[in-house]
Design brief:
By secondary structure, the protein is an alpha+beta fold. It is built from one helix and four strands; from the N terminus they run αββββ. A hairpin with a 5-residue loop joins strand 3 and strand 4.
Length: 84
């Protein structure tokens, strides 16, 4: 195999590997962040197991205990969690 072909092959493989790692890592912080928000607001949850994005700063979080919360930012800039 030519050096240039091998180089392009390695670049493509490394790019594919890192893009998969980054996509998997994007979902983790939002669940942790929403778990922390719900806990700070004093609501029962335990751990957020799934998140559905409804818009900018607007999410539906499902907790491991079955509770669902809509977490969003109101017009005053405060974070609100409404039980669904």
């Amino acid at each position: 195999m030519k050096k240039s072909t091998l180089s392009w092959f390695l670049i493509i493989i490394v790019t594919m590997l890192f893009s998969g790692v980054l996509q998997a890592a994007e979902g983790v912080p939002i669940t942790k962040d929403l778990t922390a928000v719900i806990a700070l607001l004093g609501l029962p949850c335990g751990k957020v197991v799934s998140v559905v994005k409804k818009g900018d700063n607007d999410h539906i979080a499902t907790c491991e205990n079955g509770n669902r919360y809509r977490i969003f930012m109101n017009s005053d800039g405060r974070v609100i969690a409404e039980k669904q």
